[in-house]
Write a structure and sequence with these properties.
heterodimer, A: alpha/beta, D-Maltodextrin-Binding Protein, domain 2, 5-stranded mixed β-sheet, 15 strands, about 45% helix, B: mainly alpha, two-stranded antiparallel sheet, 2 strands
Chain lengths: ~400, ~375
């Protein structure tokens, strides 16, 4: 009897020695990825340290849930932070700076653009778990059918547009590209001109460079090179591409999973976005998500260990090899996976390289703490011009006035 | 000690009311008082609330998007409440007749109210896309205008001739005599088809290309996307109110109509002097529920603005404004401002319902 009691006591002791770290992210396909990652890579490593990871994926509006949980003091120890709303969250003081847990050397192992994206007032608040940039996908069959040369990385806006026009005129029911009234796509072209979202004073000025990109992009449907996505019954360029309603798409690596389901046999290829004919540069966005730590966590040292395991080279290799996401470590640039033949490794390679010098003028997808409020005037202007409700002058004047009100320029 | 029967009864009542009182206290009273407090602070979910007095209310009435939301909400509420009350009443009267298979029709007309707002919004998006059914139907209509005009002219001509002929023969025939109209309709149809075959009538090439959703254009002060929501919401709420009216109509004694008929009252007199006055309690209920429901329009706006790509300025309502400020996309929550807006919405709802009761249809009579 005594022996049984002793064993039970020992087990209870073991259980109490184990530290629990709660982690959360969004639901959907991420659940399978994180569960697999935890089971195969992360948890075996942490078992030795007596750390148990409890994973709580959130379905529904994740941002809303996180902001509420942080406010109510019930947030998990580690959680996803999307670059888009990162600044307003970091400014709240509810996220732990990570400089104390990661050495400079450790941070330098990640792509500098990404670390920079999660740096706020000189401190690092998140370790990028993965990222995405924009790339140009094109349907080889449709280009072949139209007898038009494939888009390539030497293309400028003009040569690219000429190819789109040819495809659209040869294949009557296929658009060259389907354009969306969204800064999340158009912005890459504005960046190519050298335009920046904010000047030194934090104001937004829609200057001549911006106008040049704006006129080119919104004029594509009128010049017979593209169609407005909503006119094709789609909300994003990938939707048009997957349904073979458009010959090209401007999306990130997330399109791979969609195409795998929607058009598994499509022969597509990927290249970089076209160059601005004037500056001879391209532009791009970095969309990224970090693992960040709750400033009110009771298990910070353990949470830091979990964070390191989640973003370790082994973890990222695991994710990369399954074609699930683009890893954020520099060392993975030369990974053999990227050199494998096939449309998906190629897509992932172009997206990975899009964050570096080949991407041109690259900015993270965040707009100080203004978020969607900042993009709205520009999106409205894009929509008004593309649907023929306003001229370029009027649309840009209205957008500038709204941005001035928002950023306090006047 | 013996408890009196009355006390015991009161205790039981209280016990049964307790769960409801608890949820009312926690989710309404407490939340309401917190919202009142937050509306006077700059609370943002994270830093402790700081008292700012009336600054939020002042800021609200300075903000163009709030004023726009206010205008949209008031207009929308007025339009939808009028439309749904009117059509629900008409439908209820139509379905209150002793017809064969009336239960089937009642069921069919009730069906739209079973649709969830998410599904209805999706339907709305499909209908009102630039290449959607509404634009296609309009294109078809406009391209066949010559046919329609020809058909109408032929019908009028034939019907006129037939009625004249009947009257010549000494019969007092009204112009829209159903029997003659059926013959004229058939004749007009055959005539139009013949003209089409001879090439005298030709369809024109018309393509209606109205961007109903991604637009800021407006009609009678309401933007197009909101008109689309008006249509959809009226369509889905009419059935519920129709059922209420039907219940009300069942309560009106048949003898009143019989007496009126004996006195030679026309259907219109019966409707305006018997039906409507006796339906007053139901009318009051329907209008009040309609006003409260429409003033809180939210989910359709979220769907149409999100998936439909309608610009915020074209769809924003007060309830959406509140939500958009508590959870702004990518920005710090503005809970203080949102609480102030929520209280304005609550106050507005109360005032409008009281005004309706005072100057519109009351429970007991026309005020």
């Amino acid at each position: 009897m005594l022996r049984v009691w002793l064993i039970l006591l020992a087990l209870a002791g073991l259980a109490s020695a184990q530290v629990q770290v709660r982690i959360s992210g969004w639901g959907g396909t991420d659940i399978a990825i994180v569960n697999g990652l935890l089971k195969e890579v992360v948890q075996p490593k942490l078992d030795r340290e007596g750390i148990r990871v409890v994973y709580q994926p959130i379905e529904g509006d994740y941002t809303q849930w996180l902001f509420n949980a942080l406010s109510a003091g019930t947030a998990p120890d580690l959680f996803y932070v999307d670059i888009f709303w990162s600044e307003s969250l970091f400014a709240s003081g509810r996220v732990e700076p990570l400089d104390g847990y990661f050495s400079k050397q450790e941070l330098a192992e990640f792509l500098p653009n990404l670390i920079q994206a999660f740096t706020y007032k000189g401190k690092v608040y998140g370790i990028p778990k993965d990222f995405n940039t924009l790339a140009l996908q094109f349907n080889k069959d449709l280009f072949d059918e139209a007898g038009v040369r494939y888009p390539n990385q030497q293309d400028t806006w003009e040569t690219f547009e000429a190819k789109l026009q040819q495809v659209q005129s040869k294949l009557k029911d296929v658009a060259g590209l389907c354009v969306v009234a969204d800064f999340a796509r158009f912005g890459a072209f504005a960046f190519a001109t050298g335009w920046k979202p904010f000047d030194a004073k934090g104001h937004t000025v829609l200057d001549e460079n911006f106008r040049r990109a704006f006129e080119w992009y919104t004029g594509l449907p009128r010049r017979g090179a593209a169609r407005f996505a909503q006119d094709l019954g789609e909300g994003w360029t990938g939707g048009c591409f997957g349904g073979e309603k458009a010959a090209t798409a401007i999306e990130g690596a997330w399109i791979a999973g969609f195409l795998r389901d929607k058009a598994p046999n499509m022969r597509y290829s990927t290249t970089f976005l076209p160059l601005d004919p004037v500056t001879k540069r391209r532009g791009n966005f970095i969309y990224t998500v970090s693992w960040s730590m709750n400033a009110a966590s009771r298990n910070k040292p353990a949470a830091a260990k979990v964070l390191k395991a989640l973003t370790s080279p082994e973890a990222q290799q695991w994710v990369l090899e399954r074609g699930l996401a683009i890893p954020s470590r520099r060392a993975l640039a030369n990974n053999p996976y990227f050199q494998r033949p096939g449309k998906e490794p190629e897509l992932n390679r172009v997206v990975f390289q899009g964050s570096g010098p080949q991407g041109g003028n690259v900015y993270p997808f965040k707009f100080l703490a203004y978020g969607g409020d900042w993009m709205r005037p520009i999106n409205d202007a894009l929509l008004a011009v593309m649907t023929g409700q306003k001229g370029v002058d009027q649309a840009l004047r209205d957008a500038q006035a709204a941005l001035d009100r928002l950023t306090g320029r006047r | 000690m013996r408890i009196k029967a009355r006390t015991l009864e009161a205790l039981y009542a209280l016990l049964l009311l307790l769960p409801f009182l608890f949820s009312l206290g926690v989710f309404f009273l407490y939340a309401f008082l917190r919202a009142v407090y937050f509306s006077f602070t700059d609370y943002n979910l994270f830093s402790p609330p700081r008292w700012v007095g009336l600054a939020n209310y002042w800021a609200l009435f300075q903000e163009p998007s709030f004023l726009l939301a206010l205008k949209h909400t008031l207009l929308y509420s007025l339009v939808v409440t009028s439309l749904q009350t009117f059509f629900a009443l008409i439908l209820a009267i139509a379905l209150n007749r002793p017809l064969r298979g009336i239960t089937f029709f009642r069921t069919v007309y009730y069906l739209p109210s079973v649709i969830s707002t998410a599904a209805a919004s999706l339907l709305l998006l499909w209908l009102f896309q630039r290449t959607g059914l509404v634009n296609q139907a309009l294109s078809l209509l406009f391209s066949h205008l010559p046919h329609l005009a020809g058909f109408a002219l032929l019908f009028l001509g034939l019907q006129g001739a037939l009625v004249l002929w009947e009257r010549r023969r000494g019969r007092r025939t009204p112009f829209l005599d159903p029997g003659l109209a059926a013959v004229s309709l058939l004749g007009a149809f055959l005539g139009t088809s013949a003209f089409q075959a001879w090439g005298l009538l030709q369809a024109r090439e018309v393509r209606v290309d109205i961007p109903w959703l991604p637009t800021r254009a407006s009609f009678l002060g309401l933007p197009y996307p909101l008109w689309a929501i008006v249509l959809m919401n009226t369509y889905t709420t009419i059935p519920t109110f129709m059922v209420l009216f039907l219940a009300g109509l069942k309560g009106i004694p048949r003898t009143l109509y019989e007496a009126a008929a004996l006195d030679g009252a026309t259907p219109w007199i019966m409707f305006s002097r018997i039906t409507v006055p006796l339906l007053r309690p139901v009318l009051f209920l329907v209008i009040t529920l309609g006003l409260i429901g429409t003033l809180q329009l939210f989910d359709q706006v979220l769907f149409v603005g999100g998936s439909g790509g309608a610009p915020l300025e074209s769809t924003i309502t007060l309830a959406y404004y509140v939500y958009g400020n508590v959870f702004p996309s990518g920005a710090t929550p503005r809970v203080g401002l949102a609480s102030a807006a929520a209280l304005v919405l609550a106050g507005l709802t109360l005032v409008i319902v009281l005004l309706q009761r005072r100057f519109g249809v009351g429970e007991r009579g026309w005020s």
